[in-house]
Amino acid sequence: MLITRILTALVLLPLMLAALFLFPADAWTGFSWLIVVLALWEYSRMVGMRLPQQVGYLALSTLFAAAAWQGHWHMGAAAHGAVLALWLLLVPAWLFKRWRIPSGPLAWGLGWALMLPAWFAFVEWRPHPTAHDALALLAVMGLVWVADVAAYFSGKAFGRRKLAPAISPGKSWEGVYGAVVCVALYVALVDHFGWLDIKLPLWGLLLLALPLTAVSVCGDLLESWFKRSAGIKDSSRLLPGHGGVYDRIDSLIAVLAVGNALRVLGGM
Fold first, then answer.
1. What phi and psi values does residue 170 have, to the nearest 5 degrees?
2. What is the mean pLDDT of the chain?
3. Residues 6+ apart with CB under 8 A from 117
4. N or C: which end of the chain has fewer CB within 10 A?
């Protein structure tokens, strides 16, 4: 399994980096939407949508994304505020209460609330095919990857106290602590190289990294709870060794959405 995961990552990472640094704005928008719509498809399976509903849901979502891109739409302050409320208040309460995954119109709305702000962040954080914009977005995505890898290995080495045994038994508080330490080191490094396009001193970036790490963990746990509620192990089998696209971007969609909201609302 580990070899399969590594081989798949060796294919996906160069593809992602090539798109991030080389694609023109239109192609990057389409590429990032492909990532999001595949995750939406997997989400639609989790909530039990039948095939006609899935087709309608994904078609409507894609039409909205196309209209947003053509119309140069941006999320307003109220929408960004709703994103912060979702990830900082509602999702932690959802995990604590272990509410079941919704169905019907609520499921449609929740999918959009989870995925669309991340897509806007993909597009708004990298508006031009320049190294500056690409590195700024890569630095944010790197935070998620560092947190994920550090939590995995820290948990394997030192894990004793379970973080959320009813949701994801393999995760531990020690893994979270390892993620926090490694993310702090990572933020200091990318700030030194000038990759982060955020107007804050280092101490401010470190303070910002703490809630983003927590949001990353919540995004992972939320998708784990969705899968447990749906009675499935992986969101799909699109990525050998990794499961589905949603499995790979569960933390990323949370951090991108919250990070972009803080960036816009805070004027960073």
1. -80, -15
2. 92
3. 75, 79, 80, 83, 253, 256, 257, 260, 261
4. N
Share above pLDDT 70 across residues of the chain, in percent, rounded to a whole number: 97
Buried b (16+ CB within 10 A) or exposed e, 187-225: beebbeeebbebeeeeeebbebbebbbbbbbbbbbbbbb
> What does the block give as tokens for 34?
């492909």
Predicted confidence (pLDDT) at residue 86 exceeds the cutoff of 90? yes
Q: How many CA atoms, within 13 angstroms, populate the side-chain half-sphere of residue 253?
A: 30
Structure tokens at 51: 């095939």
Q: What phi and psi, each to the nearest 5 degrees, are found at residue 240?
A: -55, 130
243-250's contacts with Cβ under 8 Å and 24+ in sequence apart are: 244/38, 244/39, 244/42, 245/35, 245/38, 245/39, 245/42, 246/38, 246/39, 246/42, 246/43, 247/223, 249/35, 249/39, 249/118, 250/219, 250/220, 250/222, 250/223, 250/224
DSSP 173: H
Q: Any idea where the domains of the chain sit in the sequence? A: 2-265
Calculate mean pLDDT across residues 137-157. 93
Per-residue pLDDT band for 2 (boundaries 50, 70, 90) equals low
pTM above 0.85, yes or no: yes
Mean pLDDT over residues 166-190, rounded?
Answer: 94
Burial 146-157 (b: 16+ CB within 10 A, else e): bbbebbbebbee
- HSE at residue 243, side-chain half, CA atoms within 13 A, is 16
Query: What's the mean pLDDT in 175-203?
Result: 92
Write down the number of H helices and E strands in the chain: 10, 2
